[in-house]
Amino acid sequence: MGSIENPRVSIDYGDLGSNSKPQSSEGLSLSMNHPHNQKEDIDGEDACFVYINDASKTNERLEFAGNSIRTAKYSIITFLPKNLFEQFHRVAYVYFLIIAILNQLPQLAVFGRTASVLPLAFVLAVTAVKDAYEDWRRQKADKIENNRFASVLINNKFVLKKWKDIQVGEVIKVHADETLPCDIVLLSTSDPTGVVYVQTINLDGESNLKTRYAKQETLSKIPDKEPISGLVKCEKPNRNIYGFHATMEIDGKRLSLGPANIILRGCELKNTSWAIGVVVYAGRETKAMLNNSGAPSKRSRIETQMNFEMIILSLFLALLCTIVSACAGVWLWMNREKLVDIVFYHKKDFSKPKVDNYNYYGLVLEIFFTFLKSDVQMYDEASDACFQCRALNINEDLGQVKYVFSDKTGTLTENKMEFKCASVWGVDYSNQQTGSSNEQDGYFVQEHGKVFRPKMKVATDPELLRLVKSENDTEKGKHVFEFFSALAACNTIVPIVIDTSDANEKLIDYQGESPDEQALVYAAAAYGFMLMERTSGHIVINVQGEMLRLNVLGLHEFDSDRKRMSVILGFPDKSVRVFVKGADTTMLNVIDKSLNINIIHSTEAHLHTYSSVGLRTLVIGMRDLSALEFEQWHSSFEAASTALLGRTAKLQLDSNPEGVTSAALIIDGTSLVYILDTELEEELFELANQCSAVLCCRVAPFQKAGIVALVKNRTSDMTLAIGDGANDVSMIQMADVGVGISGQEGRQAVMASDFAMGQFRFIVPLLLVHGHWNYQRMGYMILYNFYRNAVFVLVLFWYTLCTCFTLTTAINEWSSVLYSVIYTAVPTIVVAVVDKDLARSTLLKHPQLYGAGHLDESYNKPLFWLTMIDTLWQSIVIFFVPLLAYWGSEIDGPSLGDLWTLASVIVVNLHLAMDVVEWNWITHSAIWGSICATWICVIVLDAVPSLVGYWAIFNVAKQEVFWLCLLCIIVGSLVPRYVIKLLSQFYCPSDIQIYKEVEKFDDDGRREDGLELEMNEVR
User: Fold this and answer.
1) Is 607 within 8 Å of 619 (Cβ atoms)?
2) Which SS3 state, helix, strand or coil, does residue 117 take?
3) Could you tell me the sign of the dihedral formed by the alpha carbons of 328, 331, 333, 337, in that order?
4) Which of 204, 363, 575, 614 is most buried as measured by Cβ atoms within 10 A of its Cβ?
5) Is 407 assigned a catalytic role?
6) How far is it, in rounded angstroms, from Cα 289 to Cα 262?
7) What is the dihedral of CA 856, 858, 863, 869, to 10 degrees?
8) Using CA atoms, how far apart are residues 373 and 369, in angstroms rounded to an integer?
């Protein structure tokens, strides 16, 4: 704690005036400025004219929106076309729509007309029902919001009126604990000084109270008792929730209005009986609604990549059809003389081979997230919140996130701060904290027969307690006294008295904008400096049992430019003192250079020690002001506060430039106003990319989204945004993956998110564990589904080439349908849901393993083409081994068809089994059970006399060559893949494969302790 250097006192401190009369009309918390703030006035083109208590004149040119809001995505008319348009962004859906249309033509039909439409219709219907339900919830919330009631001044009386009917220009009255229906400029409040306290939890996620002010010139006007009129000339609606620039003309006076004079829609009135204001922005033009960009449609990166592969496969199928058609044409020409004798040929049309079946992956995702939600380690008992998946189609993106955008520190710390240690005049008090104090229940105050206690107890230092109680006359004791006086006085905390079960005992709850301030005031109370009362003109502190009333002569709240807060207080002995607190870099620059250098060095050393152990630090200073100094400050302040041009600059003469280090970039919202959507964006991106972290201070919601867009538009890497308040909605919706934290900060972030959870710390297992697992599973599942369907299609294609290019098939039509429904579907779903390539503990212990998603190890183009080559090889083996083995024999088509069906099912399931990492009874049942189910289905189908191929399996299975063919097919199909897989893992293993082996060592009783592995570089 030190003195403040003289030159810095001249203009920095205060905004409330002198002689205990507050200049509350300014409320100078101007930490973020809109470009309009730099203008001397708002010109006609940029201005909105609001006539106070005259809505008809205000809206005669229909410039303003009504107060009705709409966040729903669809209407009854637009739902079907809009929803289908969004769903058909998936190329797979377009492909199967074309197939379904072609199947309606008898000449091209492969399946029945209805059967070809049902699978796609089912998938579209399921998604549409889900989207409709989500939108119905939005419409329901909109209806409730629009039909709430507010008190509106009509014919000099306040009457209830629905929110949706409120118009710009009307005067409304809001009572305690009510929510603001629109953006209003304050006219008067129940507090005689014009101050009002609001909670912005629905706007920016902060539960602390903030102060707003009515102009002194309008305080005395009570609209329901005397007519009120005037003109507010304000800037056009914009998304800057921290900035507002306007003027008010009333009673022949022209008053300037700033952010402290407006209350935004969604704020709640607290600790104030009532407030009256004029509506300046309504409905979709309110700042809160302008920051709501609506529910976006998101698609995962793998799905986007899969669209390309689907186009390739569609072109490949078209090529196969072209080959078949061309070959058929040549064959028909060459055998045109024989066609009269081939009666059968005239009974069949030809065009296309059998196509692969579509599998609804949404079922897999539903099952997977049922497992994920049941993760007890991601359950928050305090808020009774479990993990929620609100977007099934982007879950694999959790495993590929490169950039994380988080809300401010409050999201990380839950806005809970605790006073830990202090250095006063170079003396460290940090190693002897005990319980609450020597007294059982901590410090308390007795007044008028009642006991007042702080709501929160704080651990105290015995030495500090001794000094504040018994050594006020010593130099060390005086410094400690001044230190705790500063903690209790230099803040914007509002003490709120709370009743308890004991009528004679009250609790004091300290509410304010900053959790840091709350922690410091509670600490001061624990040491006997209890803040009892605060108005805009004075504060009352109980100091060791004695009431001390201090007049507030000037107040300048903390902002990101000055990085400190200052207050000028008048004491009962007529002395005037300025108290300042702020960041160490700023405070140490304004310290009195005549101060003992040893004290400064000791303080700096203590600050370094505190910050090294992860504590947040703050420097506090105080000095006396002479009457002449105070008068000089006051006159300078008056001149600065009445200026419109450069008002912010004049009030903040010594703002400190933001610093950039090799590790972090710090930038504020004011700077972003001039950077976003300009040519400077590219420079900011290049600079930010060289830093490991970027801190954005005091930014508006749309700026948060702008920062996310800055990265998304310049890189293909995945982005994730996480927040807990309504001000995070735009950022959450803009990011590839949005995560909302459900808790005390409202539900807006959760409703807009793709995933929701109870605590920020759950982001670690969500990404490192579930994100990794899901990316690995989904990437493999997509490739495997391409493979298993393509194998079957190619077997049918090879058969077409051997049957004069007709559409005849040896495989039973029922088996063709059941192949993707029963024979191979269940193992795919089970493995995609329960298989884990690495254990949870391994993934948490080695976060570098998350880099597999950044490297696209599980799904990439080389892997896709390698899978297709393997598919082509396996289809050749499956088809041609039986064909050559039975060449020249009298075996019929259905018998060969049963062999090809069984061989295909066995091979694709064994292919899957080779890649399973974690075997359990479910996996065993699914894979071996599917093979058994295939045998049973083939036997049952061949036992039905009315079906083609009656008794075929029984006839062909009697021959040894049948079993020999199955064995040769299995070996010939899978051995090459096994060899390539073995060699690749042995000579160039990935990090995942290495740690699979490490886990085997652990399972064998050998530990990996001391094992050092060099992992692949992730860019």
Assistant:
1) yes
2) helix
3) negative
4) 204
5) yes
6) 16
7) -170
8) 6
| Rounded Cα distance, 457 and 689, in Å | 44
Question: Whole-angstrom Cα distance, residue 486 to residue 622?
Answer: 8
Q: Would you say 1018 and 848 are in contact if contact means Cβ atoms under 8 Å apart?
A: yes
Q: Which of 12, 131, 397, 407 is catalytic?
A: 407
Q: Label residues 711-734 b or e (16+ Cβ within 10 Å = b).
A: bbeeeeebbbbbbbbbbbbbbbbb
How deeply is 635 buried, as exposed, middle or buried, from its count of CB atoms within 10 A (0-12, 13-18, 19+)?
A: exposed
Q: Which residues of 555-580 are buried (b: 16+ CB within 10 A; e: fewer)?
A: bbbbbbbbbbbbbbbbeeeeebbbbb
The span from the CA of 51 to the CA of 291, in Å, is 26
Closest CA to 434 of 312, 327, 527: 527
Among 174, 187, 175, 181, which residue's Cα sits nearest to residue 217?
187
Q: Which amino acid is at 456?
A: M
Measure Cα distances from 189 to 172, 216, 228, 272 in Å.
12, 11, 15, 8
Q: What is the dihedral of CA 566, 190, 21, 279, to 10 degrees?
A: 70
Record the tokens describing residue 169, joined without a space. 């220009």
Q: Residue 161: what pLDDT?
A: 94
Q: Where are the beta strands (DSSP E) in 603-736?
A: 619-625, 664-668, 693-697, 718-723
What is the residue type of 421?
Answer: C
**Averaged pLDDT, groups of 10, the chain, 1019 residues long:** 36 32 32 37 70 87 79 87 86 80 68 69 85 85 90 91 93 92 93 84 70 86 80 87 86 87 91 90 88 70 77 80 78 68 46 42 47 58 69 81 80 69 87 48 76 87 82 80 90 85 87 81 91 85 90 78 83 91 83 82 89 84 88 75 42 33 70 83 89 81 87 90 81 89 66 82 90 89 88 86 74 78 86 88 91 88 91 94 87 86 94 91 93 91 82 87 93 93 89 86 54 53
Predicted pLDDT at 294: 65
Q: Tell me how far CA of residue 518 lies from CA of 208, 211, 419, 498, 648, in angstroms.
A: 9, 15, 10, 16, 27
* Residue whose entry in the numeric block shows the structure tokens 């090799």: 662
Q: What is the 3-state secondary structure (H, E, C) of 160-209?
A: EEEHHHCCCCCEEEEECCCECCCEEEEEEECCCCCEEEEECHHHHCCCCE
State pLDDT tens for residues 727-752: 788 888 889 999 988 755 456 677 77
Do residues 859 and 305 lie in contact, with contact meaning Cβ atoms separated by under 8 Å?
Answer: yes
Cα–Cα distance for residue pair 1016/878, rounded to 1 Å: 38
C-alpha 46/C-alpha 816 separation (Å) is 68
At residue 34, the pLDDT reads: 37
**Residue with token string 């005067």:** 171
3-state secondary structure of 552: strand
State both tokens at 114: 């209805």
Give start and end residues of each alpha helix (H) in 886-920. 893-915
CA–CA separation, 723 vs 709, rounded Å? Answer: 16
What pLDDT score does 936 carry? 92
The pLDDT of residue 383? 61
Q: Taking a C-beta distance cutoff of 8 angstroms, is the pair 833, 916 a contact?
A: no
| DSSP summary character for residue 380 | B
Contact 13, 564 (CB under 8 A): no
Q: Tokens 């008068």 label which residue?
A: 631
Count the neighbouring beta carbons within 10 Å of the beta carbon of residue 360. Answer: 15
How many angstroms separate the first and last alpha carbons of the chain? 46
Cα–Cα distance between 438 and 426 in angstroms, integer? Answer: 25
How deeply is 946 buried, as exposed, middle or buried, from its count of CB atoms within 10 A (0-12, 13-18, 19+)? exposed
**Is 142:75 a contact under the CB 8 Å cutoff?**
no
- Residue 329: CA count within 13 A, CB half-sphere: 6
Dihedral sign computed on CA atoms, order 320, 325, 327, 328 = positive
